[in-house]
Design brief:
183 residues; Protein Transport Mog1p, Chain A; 3-stranded antiparallel beta sheet; 10 strands; 39% strand; globular
């Protein structure tokens, strides 16, 4: 083994950046159409998160972790994509199928962790979102009649850390504050 190979082999991998949450939060609002009625949905998000449009029709009211900016430049948006920390409501296939499966069998095969709930949210689950990312989500029926989830994605490198607990606290605040009303 060459000297440079040994030096590279001993260099530790850089860990994820520390999570820096704010003391305050803001209201996130969106609407859904069910039959002929509009419903207003809202939740609170930590001010370290800002509006994000992934341009996916399956995700809405999405927020991106960006503690240094309330609006993102193109350069900051590229960094946000790399860090993979998002909060929002979605009906993408993973969420839709998990809610459907839970309604039929009270289980979700793709979930690493599953907690059945009573009330507005049917369950809380943790699953692999992709190779490097976890998603923790609360499954529910949205006013538009679709299976949805209030979700948080974050890198697996945060697993078991205080930063993971802080991020999950952001999701809990969103869940506890979630409301919907007919407009």
């Amino acid at each position: 083994m060459h000297l440079f190979d040994r030096l590279r082999a001993k260099r530790p991998e850089p860990g994820p950046a520390p999570i820096r949450l704010k003391e305050t939060s803001h209201l996130v609002e969106g609407t859904a159409l069910q039959e002929d009625s509009w419903y207003l949905m809202r939740y609170r998000a930590n001010d370290a998160f800002c509006d994000w449009d992934s341009h996916s029709g399956e995700l809405m009211m999405e927020q991106a972790y960006s503690p240094d900016a309330s609006e993102l430049t193109a350069e900051q948006a590229a960094a946000v994509l790399k860090q993979r920390i998002f909060l929002g409501i979605g009906c993408e296939n993973l969420f839709y199928m998990a809610v459907e499966e839970f309604k039929q069998s009270r289980s979700v095969i793709s979930a690493r962790e599953l907690t059945p709930l009573e009330g507005r949210f049917l369950f809380r689950a943790k699953a692999d979102y992709d190779r490097d990312t976890f998603v923790v989500f609360y499954g529910f029926d949205c006013p538009d009649g679709e299976n949805h989830a209030l979700f948080l994605t974050y890198p697996k490198a945060y697993a078991g850390t205080d930063d993971e607990a802080a991020l999950l606290g952001v999701l809990e605040e969103a869940v506890q504050s979630y409301e919907e009303e007919k407009e």
